[in-house]
From TrEMBL:
<keyword id="KW-0963">Cytoplasm</keyword>
<feature type="compositionally biased region" description="Polar residues">
    <location>
        <begin position="1"/>
        <end position="12"/>
    </location>
</feature>
<keyword id="KW-1015">Disulfide bond</keyword>
<dbReference type="InterPro" id="IPR010625">
    <property type="entry name" value="CHCH"/>
</dbReference>
<protein>
    <recommendedName>
        <fullName>Cytochrome c oxidase assembly protein COX19</fullName>
    </recommendedName>
</protein>
<feature type="region of interest" description="Disordered">
    <location>
        <begin position="1"/>
        <end position="23"/>
    </location>
</feature>
<feature type="domain" description="CHCH">
    <location>
        <begin position="30"/>
        <end position="64"/>
    </location>
</feature>
<comment type="similarity">
    <text>Belongs to the COX19 family.</text>
</comment>
<dbReference type="Pfam" id="PF06747">
    <property type="entry name" value="CHCH"/>
</dbReference>
<dbReference type="GO" id="GO:0005758">
    <property type="term" value="C:mitochondrial intermembrane space"/>
</dbReference>
<dbReference type="InterPro" id="IPR051383">
    <property type="entry name" value="COX19"/>
</dbReference>
<dbReference type="InterPro" id="IPR009069">
    <property type="entry name" value="Cys_alpha_HP_mot_SF"/>
</dbReference>
<dbReference type="GO" id="GO:0033617">
    <property type="term" value="P:mitochondrial respiratory chain complex IV assembly"/>
</dbReference>
Amino acid sequence: MSTAMNFGSKSFQPRPPDKGSFPLDHFGECKSFKEKFMKCLRDNRFENALCRSESKDYLECRMERQLMAQEPLEKLGFGDLLDGKPGAETNS
């Protein structure tokens, strides 16, 4: 009997994670930002548009600590929250 399993015939080709996939925060470096964001979501019946400032802060933390790729905040949809431009929400 021969086995149909030829492990040498296929080679594994690693690839980068899909856009939006990023490492877990194993050391809790951005935990406080995540908790603020989640609290905002709960307080606002999960209406994420009301928590954009907290979301931006959380993503900035992740980028600063290399837990996700650096992206311009404008590209992530936070251009209106930069530099105190009109229309910026401040939920402190």
